[in-house]
Write a structure and sequence with these properties.
24% of the residues lie in helices and 24% in strands. It has helices at 30-33, 43-51, 59-65, 73-81, 109-116, 129-137; strands at 4-11, 54-58, 84-87, 103-106, 123-126, 143-149, 170-177, 183-189. The chain is globular, with a radius of gyration of 16 Å.
Length: 195
């Protein structure tokens, strides 16, 4: 069974929308506009890129990343080489980027569950709030890699869904606080028979 990891930049009040400056959100770029840069806080991002064996994205995140990431070879070189899976009920193969490597369209959370059941290493989910909610609610997430920024954003897409679900215990496996107030928190989802 492959490990499914959701990775996110998140404000203290749970907003994950537009950390890098996407248009249409009033607090866009909050990770660099409001917080001093501390390179040490981003160590986990390099590690993720080294360890991931596939990227899983929702349609909107795919459409945001596909025109940009293939050109960012220094920052995302390894990601650009990985197989990509995009969960969408509407995309067709004609909608996929020609220059971003192997991409497979999945139609449902059940398709993601089947992908998790294959041989291979970690599957990393970037962005993709709606997909993340569905995966979490379906019990498919194994780990969260969070960089929590010390600010409140109020409105915006939240990392966690508001579904009325049974409690999901998490085990903190890694934690560090950086000089700029950013906190790294890595949580494993505690499942029955697993500590």
């Amino acid at each position: 069974m492959r490990t499914l990891i959701i990775t996110a930049f998140m404000s203290l009040d749970g907003v994950m929308e537009a950390p890098g400056g996407e248009e249409g959100y009033r607090n866009a770029g909050w990770t660099y506009r409001n917080i001093a840069f501390d390179e040490a806080a981003y160590e986990i991002k390099g590690r993720e890129q080294d360890e991931a064996t596939a990227l899983l994205l929702g349609r909107r995140s795919y459409e945001a990343f596909a025109p940009v990431w293939p050109e960012m070879t220094e920052e995302f070189g390894r990601y650009n080489e990985l197989p990509k899976y995009v969960v969408s009920s509407a995309l067709t193969s004609d909608d996929l980027a020609d220059n971003w490597g192997e991409t497979t369209i999945l139609r449902s959370v059940e398709d993601v569950a089947r992908l998790k059941g294959t041989e291979g290493g970690p599957i990393l989910v970037h962005g993709s709030a709606t997909l993340g909610h569905a995966l979490s609610d379906a019990g498919l997430v194994d780990r969260y890699h969070l960089l929590v920024f010390p600010l409140l954003l109020g409105a915006g897409r939240r990392l966690f869904s508001t579904a009325d679900i049974d409690a999901v215990p998490l085990v903190l496996t890694e934690h560090e606080t950086y000089g700029n107030g950013v906190q790294k928190m890595v949580f494993d989802v505690a499942r029955q028979g697993r500590s």
